[in-house]
User: Fold these one by one.
Assistant:
Number 1:
Amino acid sequence: MLFSSIAFLFYFLPVVFAVYFALPKKFRNIALLVASLFFYAYGEPKYVVLLVFSSLMDYVVGMAIDKNRGTKKAKYALVCSVVVNLLILGFFKYSDFFIANVNALFRVNIPLLHIPLPLGISFYTFQTMSYTIDVYRNDAKAQKNPFDFAAYVSLFPQLVAGPIVRYQTIAEQMTGRRHTLDDFAKGVTRFVIGLGKKVLLANTLGELNATALSSSNQSVLMYWLAIVAFMLQIYFDFSGYSDMAIGLSWVFGFHILENFNYPFIAGSITEFWQRWHISMGTWFREYIYIPLGGNRVKKWKWARNIAVVWFCTGLWHGAAWNFIAWGLYFGVLLALEKLFFMGLLKRIPKVFRHIYTLLAITVSFVIFHLESVPGIIGHLKGMFGFGAVPLLNAESRYYLGSYKVVLLLAAVGATPLLKSLLRRAQGNAKLKTAVSALRPVFVTALLLVVTAYLVDSSFNPFLYFRF
Amino acid sequence: MRGKISDVITVACFLSVSYVLFFMNIIKPSDELSFSERRRLAQFPELSAGTIFSAEFMRGFDDYAADQMVYRNEWRRLKAAFDLGVFRKHDNNAIFVSGGMVFKTEYPLRESSVRRLCGIINYCDERFLSGQNVYYTLVPDKNYYLGDGDRLVMDYEALADLTREHLRDNIRYIDLFGALSLDCYYLTDSHWKQEKLGGVTAALSEGLGVDIPFDASDYAAKRYYPFYGVYYGQAALNVEPDEIIYLVNDVTENATVTSLEKPGKLFAVYDEAALEGMDSYNLFMLGPAAAVTVKNPAGENGRGLVIFRDSYASSLTPLLLEGYDTVTLIDLRYIRPDLLANAEIVGEYADFTDKDILFMFSATVFNNSDSVKSAQNEDFASPFAARSRID
């Protein structure tokens, strides 16, 4: 089920709220579990079995590790969990990619399996692995209650597109969370803002991207419009989903970590990855990079660690070579910054740091978006004026004019400007009162406008579901 | 306002919107049709183990929930107003309003689509029309006359050139571009106004070599208001509806229409009951139909015309009865061209002997020719394709 759907907003959510808050606290996790399984089954009725299996297996493994702590059995149990989770992920997500490469490499013709990708599999397998690893490391206690554990794995606010919630983050909240009016109000505000980011900005930018990319009348401006719209679309789509997930979690009393922190204002690629998809970056750092030795090893090992982590990061985003190239591109940039450029970047004026970072990110999104090498090269050539295309034409002027307000709103919305204005307003009693008074008006108006867009539009899946 | 009061009001507003719409949606009976969008609305999907496990039920419910949302038209208006008013987009779902007239962007020129329709016309010409007088014309959509430099407008000259390049040499072109102007089109609809077709009949008269006299004062003008054209609902904006004027004289009153799909019945050229239906433009010549023939009982010159056409020909045809005793309209969007060889199916509708043949398609259909059936398309059971508009 999609958050940005009438079915979710005006059928599912009212029922879930009513049932959840009507029940005594001890039954609320069960209610969440049932709601989450329904939520998942609504989109993937068959694969709900896989979700339940993954939850059950890691619950049992967690118990086994806890029972056999300090023995080899605990280690075997952990290995079993990691291997099975990776096999599940590998089979459902990467089997056709693997077969296609084997076919190409050995000139054979093994038929592809064409297995539909289960929703959110990349997210929940990483979550369950984090649980067994945390229990093994003694960073978290094993969850004794299978229903509470299943509720953690399947928690519908973040089930299909993250953030990737590590078990240790919400272990205590599974049983000891509080529900407050403040959290509820902040939660619905955050949820509606996320909806607005997704429905009003990301979807509209998606239209621009699709139009600009498919144009048969290209120009330099059109190439830039396509990729800038795509960058902003991905950001508002994904961060909007994270806002909705975080907001809904607050409503249900959970406090999960932030996933985005205005990544486009970063002054380096290193900083960009501290601000973009934070939960995924944290997962790879905690469970792959640091166990491999991090940066406290010899240089060649460190280079290997970087390569492994960014190969995996790319592969996690999709079963295609362009995603791997995208990950490795960032690995190389991060290594270069660490080895050579960071000192220089700190010395040059801020504006140049941002130009460098934005340019590097823009190129990365070309690699991310266009799957073939000729497509990537052609687009980059077009952007930088090496294609035989005019700088601009009637079509690119039309679309720039038509989407200028959306682009401007998106560009401003991708910076912390509004947040900092609101924070400043907190220091002034009158402004603070005005902000408080306007909040319900804003939330209601935004919800109504989003509803209008949803009624007008057709089915519109989140981009990150395919990861 | 204190934070706690703001919290209470925020939560109350959110829950109010959620629950009010929840209960209203539950209570509201399902609508079958959307008149403004001219389409059938999704109904509650079939609930069974099969539809659940295949996720068909869920997909159907998503469509149902959006289609049957209370105040659907008002939501759509709000969306259009926000797109154009706040986002300042130049169009909403490719629809825009200029000078009180609603337009749909037709851009860019799709050469493959034009070539495809030319191929279908050539097929018909080669298979059925050898030795006949065969003509074609291109009906410009109203974007051509907009003259607004900020809009995206198809290259109509290139379109005309393409048709000349790809159609067989014996098919002669009749130019209508100079015969029309913006005021010849409805404000809220894509079609031309019947009472403004003097220039078109004159151009056809000259091109076809037939005298088709047209003087609006020779007709009585009947009127129908309000006419909400096809763009009215799509635009979801507050624009004035149109008035349909249809011209009546003895010829149109006495002419009889027969339809391939409704055998054995006689109809009038104007179906006034259609004025109150989903699309008032269906007033003319029974609306969308695979093949219809109109006969002028008072006709004396023995000449016949066959028009392979789209909907523009519907309102034009009654005026052509001044020059032809019979006019047959064949719509290849609803019947495959190869079926015209099957006398059992099409009978006299495909009798082209000694008749003038005119292929008359709008620029929009040339540019979106997927809707036109080709002879190679064998994958539908009925010889008549489903209607694209509800009639």
Note: The two ends of chain A are 16 Å apart (CA to CA).
Number 2:
Amino acid sequence: MGITGHSTGPLTDDGLVQLLTPAGERTSHPDYDARVAHLDADALRGLYRDMVLVRRFDTEATALQRQGELALFAQGLGQEAAQIGSGRALAAQDHVFPSYREHGVAHTRGVDLTDVLRLFRGVDHGGWDPVGHGFHLYTLVIGSHTLHATGYAMGVQRDGAVGTGDPDRDTAVVVYFGDGATSQGDVSEALVFAAVNNSPVVFFCQNNQWAISEPTTKQARVPLADRGPGFGVPSVRVDGNDVLATYAVTAEALERARSGGGPTFIEAYTYRMGAHTTSDDPSRYRSSAEEESWRLRDPIDRLRTHLEERGELPTAFVEELAAEADALGERIRTTVRGMGHPSPASMFEHVYATPHSVVEGERVWFEQYEASFADGARAGEGSHR
Amino acid sequence: MPTYQQFPLPDAGEGLTEAEIVAWHVAVGDTVEVNQTIVEIETAKSLVDLPCPWSGVVSAILVEPGQTVDVGTPIIEIDTDPSGAAPEPGAPDAAEQVVRAEHGGAIEHGHRGNGRRHQGVEPGGADEIEAARVSTPTAPAGRAGSGAPAAPSAPSAPSGREGARAAAGLVGRAPQEEAAAGLAGHAPSGAREAAGLAGAAPVAAAAGLTAAPARESVLVGYGLAEPGAGRRPRAGEQSAAPTEAATAATAVTPATAATPASSRHALAKPPVRKLARELGVDLDSLNPTGPGGIVTREDVLERASQAEARTLATYPGDDLPWLATGTVSGDGRQTRVPVKSVRKRTAEAMVTSAFTAPHVTVFQTIDVTRTMKLVERLRADREFADVRVTPLLIAAKALILAVRRHPEINASWDDANQEIVYKHYVNLGIAAATPRGLVVPNVKDAHRLGLLDLAKGIAELTATARAGRTSPADMADGTITITNVGVFGIDTGTPILNPGEAGILAFGAIRQQPWVHKGKVKPRHVTQLALSFDHRLVDGELGARVLADVAATLAEPAQGLVWG
């Protein structure tokens, strides 16, 4: 009696690129050591700071949802290394297509994290300037943005911004999606187009093992990274909780894209430590033992241990960072509580990139309609607090 | 002066409208920090811990554990400036007065003034609040005014009295039900639909009551708190009262935004009003039974009689309700308890099981003296020193062995697909009585466990269950169950199947009894086993064989060597 599972499956440590073990030990890798050789103690502390601040943001936003200040929040807890490592490998001209959990990447793209919460509070469809930050708006539809990213990358090719050898001009596109998205047809279509057009796009899949309540084991019989070769896309599996390794493999993939080498599929093997969103209760479908085993692979802990053991995490730095995180928490609370309603007239903005007579006519009518009420024209006035 | 903030129950999921307060982790007088976990709530989806939005000192707990309240209802009040000076002498605390009023009948005394300073209320605001109450019947009054300037379109804003009741909510029992009822009764359905989400209106009602922090939308995800209940008036329409309300409210809170106030006025004839006042009954809290929705004399008398101290006449001296969360009937002879959470799920599961699976129960009485000896020996075994070895453990092992020999019992009837699902694993359910009711968590993959690990598994499972922390995952996907009725001294029973399973074993009490052993009557340890099975997929022969196997192993544990 008893069912024997398949010994190999999508959840295996086989073939993971790792530069920092869960115990914080730096291991050597023939292909990737050179990619992180320039990261000195200051740079590592920078990555550590990024992860600590993003985690604080995560905790604070989750609490705000529980306090009725946000309609919803999607935690990134546990995925900080995958996001910070890959995000910090990007260049200014690169363009990112995130899903809805990429708060860490948003941080590396200079997006004020409180702006991210405008979406989760429901007062804005986006919250930031996607062009200015090279960071597209969050996509809530699963997997559709892999096609957008591929199309954008094909546009980059037509702009001649690939393979010129000019480091400030050559551009890569990165699309972030999850394990669940790989079951969507869109992702396969995007891989087809990216491959045959040799487009400069990096498919960054954070396999956090749970598509809400659906485990990766119910979506694939092999590691997700094995998908890439079938499309003719080079693939790599990386320990997604290792900030150095994710930095290294992303840097390599970005270089390939910018130089005209075409797309790459990266599977960052990580774990969603929190709930899918604040509406989800993971204890209904997974065991606390599983969560505990991943807590031991925490991305922040291993970098801290690494720095501490090398004596590169001075107390002053730790204290300053703690104070900075506290200040961030306070700023997030204050900012979110003070967010006003958007002006109803703002619905007419950003419909088209250029002026449009039909939309303009509707806006004028709407403003007159609003002005007909006793409490005045709220349409044009925006937030009225 | 102290500054009080109230925390309205948030929507912890998407679109939830209510939640039950399970347990408070703080008490009045406790110091709390920002984001400190203060309360556990149970929503339709899960148990959720709520973090405190402010640091300060808990000044009031507004909802008792066990109560289910609407999203938006204030649940706790925090003094966010506890080092501030006390209220000025001579400015009696409105809230306390109202509490007295609530219990003592002098409702009209509730709103003399308000010594506490709230967000957005200027010093001296007490008088202005009073002014607002007196001069503008449609203005939000009392403490409600602090966060709630005019809602010009609200058809029925609270009177001063309701304002006072709102204040009462701050220290005493919050009149949430009135708030919700008022809204349900009076919010035009169109307005609620316009808000876009079910539940928007109750939130708005709570907003009117609660003096939420100075912002417009009380809870995200529950629609706009503005236009409240009612049509937005067109420019140029006659709207004297709203204007007056707006003026008065502005005097109270120049800086804050519109939060609608909504409630209802009870309709009643003057003599009934007088009677209600004398008896201390709040007309607005009654469900009117008179024609056209007016409150009758009988409504008032009935409520007054309920309010009297009640005793359980059947048992002199036993004057408390039997169940803390229940409501004692008017004559004190019955307690009504709402059916919810575990009790509700148990009832649904039992009905489903009992009326879909035709149950057959077989019984066997056996001599388990050798099992008792084995238990004694294991208890002395160092390997088993850390676990509790009980006859139930041996019975569990015996059942697993029987399942191994007759795997057809370890199955489930899939009615939708007209298939029988045979499980290749045993998730062994153990029925556990817990403070929150019956739960049946199961030991996962019990067939793979040796006796020691099985003992640990059962111990962990029962400890988790008793602590009330059994998760739905722990209870899911059971394949067969044991219920240990013997622990209550019971000989046996006819257990009802855990839904989705085909067998359940009841393990009776073990007693020393005269028993024929080797041709002589001897005192032996004897017990009874009962096995209920689903006769759709388990025939009498199979059921009998499974039970006989369990009995054989318990009678002679060495049989386990033969079958194991």
Note: Residues 342-385 of chain A form one domain.
